[in-house]
Amino acid sequence: MDYVLIERDEEIAVIRLNRPEAKNALNLQVIAELGEAADIVARDPQVKGVIVTGGEGDFAAGGDIKEMATKYAPDMLTAYGADLSGFEKLERIPKPVIAAVSGYALGGGCELALVCDMIVASDTAVFGLPEITLGIIPGAGGTQRLPRLVGPNRAKEMIFTGSFYKAEEALAMGLVNKVVPVEKLMDEAKALLRKCTRHGAVALACAKASVNEGMNTDLYTGLAYERKCFSLLFSTEDQKEGMTAFVEKRKPQFKGR
Ligand code: CAA
Predict the structure, then answer these.
(1) Is the CB of 130 under 6 A from ligand 1?
(2) Which residues are tagged catalytic?
(3) Which residues of the chain have pLDDT under 50?
(4) What is the reported pTM?
(5) Which of 64, 65, 67, 146 best tests ligand 1's pocket when mutated (most atoms within 8 Å of CB)?
(6) Label partner for 104 (CA 20 to 30 A): which of 1, 58, 116, 251?
(7) C-alpha 234: how far from its chain's center?
(8) Fold classification of 201-247 (topology level)
(9) Cβ of residue 57 lying under 6 Å from some atom of ligand 1
(10) Which residue, 186, 167, 178, is CA-closest to 103?
């Protein structure tokens, strides 16, 4: 892949955007490569958690405006509509996924962070959905995932004004989980991820699916989904180990099965 790198740190896979000359703008190739990377880390049993990042530079300054500038509706409905599934592939990785954001996370870049389960931002991070300033609206989930996360009124402010928000403002509105000094970004993101990956992988996958399914449906359908996942976990070795370890007053050794 040209613009997306996959690095490994023990059980963590880092999906790193690598198009600094364009502030990691998301052209069709980058989006397709993100989808490929999502498939690779999702299938790798050695990978227990994933970080999506642009490193200490910029996360991503949005969809590639130069690539989109001359396009018409049919192009956007076909090629672009199909390739945005790269975002959905990332969202459906059945493992915890953290966006480690520094610098600009604008437009499609902000929307990329929103498909992750949690967002750790550096003190240099700047979030925004400036599509309105280009005569369009967010097209990769911004009008859907953002209001589900921060509420419709805050989302509308961000979408209608096209304003930029510093990391601390994003924290105050509930867009990010925590803000850390830029030089500690990756360490803090990995530390948060490891707090998750020390637990059983099947339970984590069920927890993620249950929250995500529940966010997209009514309460009682969500509760029924949760109950099925909860019950299914009683057929795993990890459930037996977790509860036996509690009774025996020792730490559990989860195997992810
Ligand atoms: N698309 C294409 N190229 C981009 C880009 C983008 N979204 N963002 C930055 N770049 C390019 C610039 O054109 C520039 O390239 P050249 O050197 O060839 O001129 C290079 O990256 C560096 O950028 P700047 O010189 O502009 O850097 P700056 O520090 O002065 O400004 C910025 C940084 C505020 C992020 C500014 O680049 C900017 O406003 N970018 C666009 C942000 C935006 O509107 N994003 C939304 C895009 S639409 C979208 O995302 C739709 C969707 O929902 C999928």
Answers:
(1) yes
(2) 111, 131
(3) none
(4) 0.97
(5) 65
(6) 1
(7) 28
(8) Lyase 2-enoyl-coa Hydratase; Chain  A, domain 2 (1.10.12)
(9) no
(10) 167
